[in-house]
Design goal:
This protein has a four-stranded antiparallel β-sheet. A three-stranded antiparallel β-sheet has the order 1-2-3, with no helix packed on it. The protein has a three-stranded antiparallel β-sheet with strand order 7-9-8, covered by helices on one side. By secondary structure, it is of the alpha+beta class. α1 (about 65-85) packs across α5, α2 (about 100-115) crosses α3 (about 145-160) and α3 (about 145-160) packs across α4. The chain is elongated and about 70 Å long. It has helices at about 65-85, 100-115, 145-160, 165-175, 185-195, 215-225, and strands spanning about 1-5, 10-15, 20, 40-45, 50-55, 60-65, 90-100, 120-125, 130-135, 210-215. Helix content is about 35%, strand content about 25%.
Length: about 230
């Protein structure tokens, strides 16, 4: 399994340990991602307000809900940007924000792409802008924080070699994904993992961190001296 980290680096995840490795080994040398339509995948528990525990046949999948959600949202965002179908939430009152010169330059560069995510932002003189709508997935954050954080993310990602579309998609995914401590219902947890397993790159988030660790029954048997 491999993932593009955004800077041209290929990341592979060893699905027996969850470790990210750099290797030229063929993808077929590691276990395939489970079939999301299989009846053998079921939610069995949670750990640490972050990890979701699933059984897949004789294996256990330990899913990081944040990185898994990031991967799902990242691929969704790329499709939405291509289709220009971002969902906006109008603000009751527009918010004026003074940006730094660097943030304003990034705003001008990424303005059209931000509009496709659901932002509606107008220039208001100097480095000040007026926010009239934000992406619906960011409504839990203040409009000022949402815009500034995304511009800072885009600037950092651009410096590492990301193209603009991927930088915007990754920032929006990271800022809107569920966090550690966010309690998902069983239905939400199952839905998240089902969507993850249908992703083009299910093994890692856009940053290159694993989305899940696979632990086989044989691994556990060896740990308990049953091998």
């Amino acid at each position: 399994p491999s993932a593009d980290s955004g800077a041209g680096e290929v990341v592979r995840v060893d699905t027996s340990t969850g470790e990210i490795i750099s290797s030229d080994a063929p993808i077929s040398s590691v276990a395939p991602v489970p079939d999301p339509g299989s009846d053998g995948i079921s939610l069995v528990g949670r750990f640490g307000d972050l990890y979701l525990l699933f059984q897949s046949g004789s294996d256990m999948l330990v899913v990081d809900q944040h990185t898994a959600h990031e991967r799902v949202l990242y691929e969704d965002n790329l499709r939405r940007l291509d289709d220009q179908k971002g969902v906006a939430q109008q603000l009751l009152l527009p918010v004026q924000v003074e940006l730094s010169p660097e943030q304003f330059a990034l705003f001008e560069e990424s303005r059209e792409m931000l509009t496709h995510t659901g932002f509606e932002v107008a220039e208001f003189g100097g480095c000040t802008v007026r926010i009239e709508a934000v992406p619906s997935v960011l409504t839990r954050k203040s409009p000022e924080t949402a815009l500034r954080s995304m511009l800072d993310d885009i600037g950092s990602l651009r410096k590492t070699g990301y193209d603009l579309k991927k930088a915007v998609a990754q920032s929006l995914a990271c800022r809107s994904a569920v966090m550690a401590g966010d309690r998902l219902t069983d239905h939400e947890a199952i839905g998240l993992v089902s969507r993850l397993l249908r992703c083009e790159n299910a093994y890692s988030c856009p940053h290159g961190r694993p989305t899940f660790v696979r632990i086989s029954k044989e691994d556990l048997d060896r740990q308990f001296g049953r091998g």
